[in-house]
Write a structure and sequence with these properties.
With about 290 residues, the protein is of the alpha/beta class. The chain has one domain: TIM Barrel, CATH 3.20.20. The protein contains twelve helices and ten strands. The strands form two sheets. Strands 1-2-3-4-5-8-9-10 form an eight-stranded parallel barrel, surrounded by nine helices. A two-stranded antiparallel sheet has the order 6-7. α2 (about 25-40) links the parallel β1 (about 20-25) and β2 (about 45-50). It binds 1,3-dihydroxyacetonephosphate (13P). The site of 1,3-dihydroxyacetonephosphate has 15 residues, from β3, β10 and α10.
């Protein structure tokens, strides 16, 4: 059964580790992530952007697929199905379809409007036991056509939003979605420390997990980050393994064109990436 992200993140914050949010794109992705979480006895959050939801034929299709897998694959570790960077309407659609967690990304609204909309969502989500992530300070980079410039969040605004009763809070600290440019300045730990000081026990969320060096990840966790989002890195591993399969001519040998064979190396590559991240985040054995 799907669970909200609340308990797993409270435990992560107290235990000084982070739970990975891995974004899904299709059946293979979902299966690879769930099997790895179960094998490593780790809690996990499946992230779904609105674009990915559209691609996978809507929230109902995804909820059906994930619930089916939990049962058929005997997944017993805590799994949250989370809307990533949801709009206001998107958050309601995901909640109504059976998502156990939603992010309302109101970072592009003025703070007052972000507060008003976040407050309403929290009220309706809590009534259903659904966890809510809010965001302050847009995350840079491009995701699903939304381009942010990588703002650094104002710790006082973080406190304002945290006090509304959100489950977890994403705050921009120089992190961006996708690959980091060679001249990237790194995470702003000074601001992160201030945000943690202002928000206390609130689990903090680090977006743009792809390509952040291990020591920065560890430092971020030590400063209160309890959820780390990873998307691009699984896409890159999948693409590289699939490219190799084709370049080696494997699709031309025997029944190598069978999608169950053709997609298998990519699935194994996603599993390896998820395993590496769970080990780095410290969530292994924490289910
Ligand atoms: P990356 O694609 O950079 O890993 O970011 C993922 C993310 O933050 C999803 O919200």
């Amino acid at each position: 059964m799907l669970v909200s992200a609340s308990e797993m993140l409270t435990k992560a914050k107290a235990g000084k580790y982070a739970v990975g949010q891995f974004n899904i794109n299709n059946l293979e992705w979902t299966k690879a992530i769930l099997l790895t979480a179960q094998e490593l006895n780790s809690p996990v959050i499946l992230g779904v952007s609105e674009g990915a939801a559209k691609y996978m034929c809507g929230f109902n299709t995804i909820v059906g697929m994930v619930n089916g897998m939990l049962e058929t694959l005997n997944i017993t570790v805590p799994v949250a199905l989370h809307l990533d960077h949801g709009s206001y309407d998107g958050a309601y659609a995901a909640m109504n379809a059976g998502f156990s967690s939603v992010m309302f990304d109101g970072s592009h609204y003025a703070i007052d409007e972000n507060i008003a909309k976040t407050t309403q969502i929290i009220k309706d989500a809590s009534a259903k036991g659904i966890s809510v992530e809010a965001e302050v300070g847009a995350i840079g980079g491009e995701e699903d056509g939304v381009v942010g410039s990588g703002e650094v969040a104002d710790p006082k605004e973080c406190k304002q939003i945290a006090d509304l009763g959100v489950t977890m809070l994403a705050a921009g600290i120089g992190n961006i979605h996708g690959k980091y440019p060679a001249n990237w300045a790194g995470l702003n730990f000074e601001v992160l420390a201030k945000i943690q000081e202002e928000t206390g026990t609130m689990p903090l969320v680090l977006h743009g997990g792809t390509g952040i060096p291990a020591e920065m990840i560890q430092k971020a966790i030590s400063l209160g980050v309890s959820k780390i989002n990873v998307n691009t890195e699984c896409q890159l591993s999948f693409a590289e393994a699939t490219r190799k399969y084709i370049e080696d001519g494997k699709d031309l040998q025997g029944k190598g064109f069978d999608p169950r064979k053709l997609l298998a190396p990519g699935v194994e590559a996603i599993k390896a990436t998820v395993k590496e991240k769970m080990e780095l985040f410290g969530s292994v054995g924490k289910a």
